[in-house]
UniProtKB/TrEMBL annotation:
Name of the gene this protein is made from: rio2
Protein name stated in the entry: Serine/threonine-protein kinase rio2
Keywords from the named record: Kinase, Transferase
EC annotation from Swiss-Prot or TrEMBL: 2.7.11.1
Length: 378
C-alpha cells in the first residue's frame, strides 16, 4: 500500500479537524454521522460538507451508508496521515523516503527525523490479510466489524514498541526504538540483511548457536518471540544477528508457551538444515532451558501494554492463523517480496508541520496524542 506523504502538504486546519473528528467518532461509531463530526470538530454542520468531500477525494476517508444514515470512516491513508502528523510534530519524522519492505501485515519505509538521521517507519496493517480475499470490499467497512483494523493495528504497534523498549534496555540485539503513535513505530535503521537473503555463511554453526542462545536468553527473561524465523532475523556484515518484529511475542507463562518455544527452535533448525546443510544434535528444550530468571514479561505489562490488550491482540492473531492466514511463514525461497515501483512512492520532504496546529482550547479532548486513551475500546 502506498504511503501518500504528499497529502500532508495540502491540508487545511479544517480538513485536519474533520479528519480528527472522524477518528474520535469512530471510537464509538463504525460509521460516523455528519452531526457528530460537526460537534467534535467545532465546525458548523453546513460547513463541513466541503471538507468531507475534499477528504473523500483524497481517499483519506470513505463514505458509507447504514440503514439509518450516511456517515464516514477513516481508511488507512487517513490514519497514516494522522499518525505522520503527530510523529512529525514531535520531530521523529521529517521526511519519508523509499519503501524497503512489504510485510504480510506492515509497510516499512526509510524516513529521516528532524535530526536528519535515517530511521525506519513501520506501519502496522492488521486486517490486511483477513480482507485481502474479500471480493466485496464493503465487507471491510461493515458496520458491525469489530474489532476494527484501526484498533488492532494500533494495539500491534503499541505492543511492538513496548517490547522493543524493554528488550533494548536489557541489551538484547534489537533495533533502538525511537517513537510510536497510533499504528506506527519509528526505530533505528539497521545496516543488516534478513537471514533469508543470505545464501552462504562461513560458519553456520556459530550463527546457529548464537540464535539458539538468543531464544534461551529470551526465555530466561520470561519471553518467547513467537515468529523467530529467517525473515525476522537480520544479520550484520560482521555476522551478528538482530531480532525484529515483536507483535506476536508471548510470555513463558502463556498456556501454549512450550508450543511457541519449540516452534521458534524448529524454525531455525529447519532453515539451517535446508539452506546451509547444517544440523546439530544440540538444541534448547523448553522444560530444561526455559527456566525464568527475570520478569521482562511483567515489565512490559507494567509499561502500559496491558494484559487485556495482550489477550485481544492474541485472539485476533490466532483467529487469522485459524483462517489459514498464519503470520509464521514458510514461503518457498523463490518468492520475492513485491515492492511498489518508484513512481508509486510519494516522497515528502517539506510537508508543513504547523498546519492544523492552531486548534482552540476546546479541542483539548480531541488532542491527537493517543497515549492517554490506551484502555479505550474504540
Ligand atoms: P512484518 O511484521 O510485516 O513481518 P518486519 O518488522 O518483520 O515486518 O519487517 C519486514 C522487513 O522490513 C524485514 O524483513 C526487513 O527486511 C525490513 N526491516 C524491518 N525493520 C527494519 C529495520 N529496523 N532496519 C532495516 N530493515 C528493517
Ligand atoms: Mg517479519
Amino acid at each position: 500500500m502506498k504511503l501518500d506523504a504528499k497529502a500532508m502538504r495540502y491540508m487545511s486546519t479544517e480538513d485536519f479537524r474533520v479528519l480528527t473528528a472522524i477518528e474520535i467518532g469512530s471510537r464509538n461509531h463504525d460509521i460516523v454521522p455528519a452531526t457528530l463530526i460537526s460537534q467534535l470538530s467545532h465546525l458548523r454542520s453546513g460547513g463541513i460538507n466541503k471538507f468531507i468531500t475534499d477528504l473523500i477525494k483524497r481517499k483519506l476517508i470513505a463514505s458509507e451508508s447504514t440503514s439509518k444514515y450516511v456517515g464516514y470512516k477513516l481508511v488507512y491513508a487517513g490514519y497514516d496521515y494522522l499518525a505522520l502528523k503527530t510523529l512529525s510534530k514531535r520531530g521523529s519524522v521529517a521526511s519519508v523516503g523509499n519503501q524497503i519492505g512489504v510485510g504480510k501485515e506492515s509497510d516499512i519505509f526509510v524516513i529521516a527525523g528532524d535530526n536528519e538521521e535515517q530511521a525506519v517507519l513501520k506501519l502496522h496493517r492488521l486486517g490486511r490479510l483477513s480482507f485481502r480475499n474479500v471480493k466485496n470490499k464493503r465487507d471491510y467497512f461493515r458496520p458491525d466489524q469489530s474489532p476494527s483494523w484501526m484498533y488492532m493495528s494500533r494495539l500491534s504497534a503499541m505492543k511492538e514498541f513496548a517490547f522493543m523498549q524493554v528488550l533494548h534496555q536489557h541489551g538484547f540485539p534489537v533495533p533502538k526504538p525511537i517513537d510510536q503513535n497510533r499504528h506506527c513505530i519509528v526505530m533505528e535503521l539497521l545496516d543488516a540483511h534478513p537471514l533469508r537473503q543470505i545464501e552462504k555463511i562461513g560458519e553456520p554453526g556459530k550463527l546457529y548457536s548464537e540464535l539458539m542462545d538468543l531464544i534461551v536468553r529470551l526465555a530466561k527473561h520470561g519471553l518467547i518471540h513467537g515468529d523467530f524465523n529467517e525473515f525476522n532475523i537480520l544479520v550484520r556484515d560482521d555476522g551478528s544477528p538482530i531480532l525484529i518484529d515483536f507483535p506476536q511475542m508471548v510470555s513463558t507463562s502463556h498456556a501454549n508457551a512450550e508450543f511457541y518455544f519449540n516452534r521458534d527452535v524448529d524454525c531455525i533448525r529447519t532453515f539451517f538444515k535446508r539452506r546451509y546443510g547444517y544440523e546439530s544434535v544440540l538444541y534448547p528444550k523448553f522444560a530444561l532451558d526455559a527456566n525464568k530468571e527475570f520478569d521482562l514479561d511483567v515489565q512490559v505489562a507494567a509499561s502500559g501494554f496491558t494484559k487485556k490488550d495482550q489477550s485481544q491482540l492474541e485472539s485476533f492473531l490466532e483467529s487469522e492463523q485459524a483462517d489459514g492466514l498464519a503470520h509464521n511463514n514458510d514461503d518457498d525461497d523463490n518468492e520475492e517480496e513485491e515492492l511498489p515501483s518508484d513512481e508509486e512512492i510519494v516522497y515528502a520532504d517539506d510537508y508543513d508541520k504547523d498546519e492544523a496546529g492552531s486548534r482552540d482550547s476546546k479541542d483539548a479532548d480531541t488532542e491527537d496524542d493517543e497515549d492517554q486513551d490506551d484502555d479505550e475500546d474504540n
